[in-house]
Write a structure and sequence with these properties.
By secondary structure, the protein is α/β, with parallel strands linked by helices. It has a domain of 191 residues: 3-Layer(aba) Sandwich (Pyruvate Kinase, Chain: A, domain 1). The chain is 59% helix and 15% strand. It has a 5-stranded mixed beta sheet with strand order 3-2-1-4-5, with helices on both faces. It starts with a helix and ends with a helix.
């Protein structure tokens, strides 16, 4: 049986851990509000950009642009957006599972890792990591998205990549985030994008022409989509960390209550044993 000193030491240790997890929960909660606002504010812009680019692509069907080139041969490049730090529940592992599910041929796949967790995961498992971007998962900036987009565009223009897919966590609510794959390149205009939400198709006037406008906007579109995904992923990471730390704090509280009860039982047993010894000694002297 553990001594009273051992139990007190255990209680103190758990209380220290509880203070740390509670502090991390408060930090994640405060950061989540800003990250959620950024993701929600950026979403309409990203969706409208997609709609405009799709319309321009339809009006420039015969446009010749490297980012529109469809190839039969080449590698699959996957942009994986995960966390830099741990203690965020299953956030990063869910992204990795979704990524692995989208890999058909390990030897014919390259990874662009955003976040230390994704970089370490794929490197340790023998995947080819083309480049890693770390230290930006919680607070992504537009410049970070542009750097990633520029690298992806260069890789695609080199001709060795036939398809670029991005996998990130879409923020739904403070308790729900969904890993989601998005095809980035070659750019494809979906049939369902022909009409806006109002049901009417928007007509644009192009100067000098649709093909020239498309060539200018396609790289910008890629930056916009990646930045929007990074904002969604940041909100997902912080919400996952907030929930994980809240659960850890609650579990620590339950463990402390159990240890306190156990401590009192051991202490009471010790007092009872001492009383029995005193009574026994008194009876022996009588």
């Amino acid at each position: 049986m553990a001594s009273l000193q051992d139990i007190r030491r255990r209680i103190k240790s758990v209380k220290n851990i509880q203070q740390i997890t509670n502090a991390m929960n408060m930090v994640a909660t405060s950061r989540l509000r800003r990250a959620k606002e950024n993701a929600q504010n950026n979403k309409p812009y990203a969706e409208k950009t997609r709609e405009v680019i799709a319309e321009i692509a339809r009006n420039a069907k015969n446009a010749n642009h490297p980012l529109l080139e469809v190839r039969e041969e080449g590698k699959k490049l996957i942009l994986v957006i995960a966390a830099d730090k741990g203690l965020a529940g299953a956030y990063s592992s869910n992204v990795m599972k979704e990524t692995v599910a989208n890999i058909e041929d390990k030897g014919n796949t390259e990874i662009v890792a955003v976040g230390r967790k994704s970089n370490e995961y794929f490197k340790n498992r023998g995947y080819s990591v083309a480049k890693a971007f770390t230290g930006i998962s919680e607070r992504p900036k537009y410049e970070n998205a542009k750097e990633i987009a520029d690298f992806i565009i260069e890789k695609f223009k080199e001709g060795g990549v036939k398809e670029v897919v991005m996998i990130y966590s879409r923020f739904v609510s403070a308790i729900t985030c969904i890993p989601e794959p998005v095809k980035l390149l070659p750019f494809e205009s979906k049939e369902g994008e022909e009409k806006t939400e109002s049901g009417f198709r928007t007509e644009y006037i192009y100067e000098p022409d649709a093909e020239t406008v498309l060539k200018t906007l396609l790289p910008q579109y890629l930056v916009t989509v990646i930045y929007a995904a990074m904002l969604q992923a940041a909100a997902s990471e912080l919400s996952s960390r907030m929930n994980a730390m809240q659960n850890a704090t609650d579990n620590a509280g339950e463990l402390i209550a159990k240890l306190d009860l156990h401590y009192n039982k051991v202490r009471q047993a010790g007092i009872t044993n001492e009383i029995n010894e005193i009574v026994g000694g008194a009876n022996a002297l009588a």
